[in-house]
Automatic annotation (TrEMBL), chains A, B:
Organismal lineage: Bacteria, Pseudomonadati, Pseudomonadota, Alphaproteobacteria, Rhodobacterales
Record's subunit section: Homodimer.
Location in or out of the cell: Cytoplasm
Protein name: Phosphate-specific transport system accessory protein PhoU
Main localization of the protein described in the UniProt heading: cytoplasm
């Protein structure tokens, strides 16, 4: 292949990649909004907003399909190798993680629809919203890190996941206490607990995105050495 | 490119694909074992078996990495297009879904380590084990469907996920009842509930594998028209 042809292919690939990255950014923006709105709907008991979050998730799903199709098209058409191929495969992983976060936000919105029928549990929705905000900020930074190819920022996001895990552990204890104090809280606390767990899982997916960025920039997937995580599976809170 | 060269590339691709499929089958076997063993460890309160499940998960994770690396290598080396490319991308998605199921089994095993310290909750571990068996059978069939390129069997797997969802809904009600009857059951029921939910999620991942098989064979990703699912987010059991 001549140098000229080579350059044409590279330029074409770069254009394609930019178009796909634009889709990722759009998806990221929608997922960030879904996280914030679902937590807001829960705290403000806003059923209409919860309904919107559920409705918007369909668009997020469609965007993921579009990213997959575009990536497959670019691989087939441009035959990327080495770093370019790694970039395309990374993009597919990032969009899969975004889609999962969107699903969790949708699930949060669904449970909100149930929870508004019940007696609120003191302060819980506020704590959950704080946790959701933290995850949304992590996601914003993870996507920035991707666009800037900033491994340091990505590493920072990764470390911050431990804070989300701590918030979850605190909430788990809070819910157990509410349930034991008053059995009428049991059903709503089960739902709230799921919501908290799902936000904690979103944090894991954002962390996975950050790790993909680190892999993309450095070529090495970080070892699992960050402080983990959900400790409720190791010891029942109050018994540690 | 000459016809001869073409045929060589096709043969080389087929050989590569077979090697990757062998990895997927190995991974599938390990994940199936993890599902069954983790549920067995829970019912029989076998801490050593639970420890083994957690240990084995590292191997499953390594296999997923290996699949990803091999797929990237094959794409770079053989430049597959159309159906071949679709196959490779499908394989990557299947291995990601298998890895998630492995994670859920590991989580089940972790919670078992906590639960053996507590008073057992009547009959729950037995019901959970039945649910795990159902999911393991679905996974076996989903992987068979992949190897045989059998869209009909994959569709069958997809439909069976509704049964797993029903099992989960029944367990959710059971746990709520136990918690309301005796607050001393609350902590263990929270863990058991998580376990049940995680098995239900494994079912979703197996369904995703089945859908990938359908996509691979027919070129069309099935519409979301199967009977869904976890109804606990729509209405609290006992209140429907």
């Amino acid at each position: 292949m001549s140098e000229m042809q080579d350059r044409h292919i590279t330029e074409a690939f770069d254009r394609d990649l930019e178009a796909i990255q634009a889709l990722i950014m759009k998806m990221g923006g929608m997922v960030e909004a879904a996280i914030l709105d679902s937590a807001k709907a829960l705290e403000e008991r806003d059923e209409e907003l919860a309904r919107q979050v559920r409705e918007n998730d369909k668009q997020i799903d469609r965007l993921e399909e579009q990213v997959n199709e575009e990536c497959a098209r670019v691989i087939a058409l441009r035959g990327p190798v080495a770093r370019d191929l790694r970039t395309i495969l990374t993009v597919m992983k990032i969009s899969a993680n975004l889609e999962r976060c969107g699903d969790y936000a949708k699930n949060l919105a669904k449970r909100t629809t149930v929870l508004v029928q019940m007696q609120p549990v003191d302060g819980s929705a506020k704590s959950i919203r704080r946790m959701a905000r933290e995850v949304e900020l992590m996601m914003k930074d993870a996507l920035d890190a991707y666009i800037q190819r900033d491994a340091e920022l990505a590493e920072d996001v990764r470390q911050r996941d431990a804070e989300v895990d701590q918030m979850y552990n605190a909430l788990f204890r809070e819910f157990l206490t509410h349930m034991m104090e008053d059995p009428r809280n049991i059903t709503s606390c089960m739902h709230l607990h799921f919501i908290a767990k799902n936000i904690e899982r979103m944090g894991d997916h954002v962390t996975a995105i950050a790790e993909q960025v680190i892999y993309l920039v450095t070529g090495v997937l970080p070892e699992d050495n960050r402080p983990k995580g959900d400790r409720t599976s190791f010891a029942a809170p109050g018994e540690t």
